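Collaborator request log, item 7. Partner lab (contact: R.S.) asked for a structural prediction of Class I SAM-dependent methyltransferase to inform their binding assays.
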Amino acid sequence: MSRVTGDEPTTGCRVCGGTVEQWCDLGRQPISQDFRDPAATDPEYFFHLAVGVCLSCAMVQQLEQVPSELMFHADYPYRSSGSEFMRRHFAGVARRLLATELAGPDPFAVEIGCNDGIMLGTIAAAGVRHLGVDPSRRATETAEAAGVRVRVDFFDEATAREILAAEGPADLIYSANTVSHIPFLGSVFRGAATLLAPDGVFVFEDRYLGDILDNAYFDQIYDEHCYLFAVRSVQALAARSGLELVGAERIPVHGGSIRYTVARAGARPPGPEIAELLAWEREQGLHRPERLRRFTARMEQIRADLVDLLRDLRAAGHRVVGYGATAKSATVTNYCGIGPDLVEFVCDSTPGKQGLVTPGMHLPIRPPESFADPYPDYALLFAWNHAEEIMAKEHAFREQGGKWILYVPKVHIV
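Returned to partner:
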């Protein structure tokens, strides 16, 4: 499934080959989804997690790239359907696309990173021709069971040519929280240019650099997020493949994302929000190294405050557990040095994670029933992007005196 494209820059910026200046260093980190058997003796893979910005095309990117096959493999544990919020979100996205981009005669939709079919399931139920492309065999089995057609593969230019030959051009290529995971972006965008119908669009959602910086979301930086997108960098990226950014809609997913719409150059007029967001990014100095370095100071303060709080709580005899064995929790626990001495265990609803330990710091992962057996005094909420949904579900925890600890945009207790 893994391909080497052969023409991606091997030094400097992975998009344009320009000079990349480092601005954020999170130190030694493990594979964020490498949940392990506590008895495992094989060595863990660690890498240096540092991020820089290209001084030419403004793409924010990791300096050391983890091999894709170590992250996105047959047993990749993340499932999009695990959150009620995300289920509603993707159902809404599918209905909107069916009413717009897929409203013509015999439309064809392709999704990059379809995971368990949470979005394509609605497309399939409407009888629309579709194909999901995802390298995780285990996740796609769930999608196929729901009636979704899937190709188990990475999406790149070669894959796009093969899909075009077999299926014809795509009216829609869609992706959510996946494009930023793919190191060979040039090949992905050339693939989109190859596969799209003349008036087709490439729509993808991803976390927004502006929101990450404003809210000190340092845990959005982990192995899978090779890039942190902004309107300026996506516009430049699209242009390199003969495409054009024509839409950029801010959405609340994952603490703040943008839904980008890319089309063939000249095929559609860019929306006014493109110029507005570009002007805002310039005003904010979003890609200036000095602006980015200020984020580092906030990140370091959060680490100091969180560790001090956890140490004080444990010294006072309080029980603290974690909630949500998320990928981003690996960044928090390893950057802050949070082990079982500070947090007893982490509760998670994903069966495949239960009974294992978290990457690097080896916090035990237990099922949700353990959260109330008995309730802890404090819960460190790693899945803060689903705080409203989780707190509503765990209302009994609050009612018996339990308190939540959140660490972005600053350490606070609710």
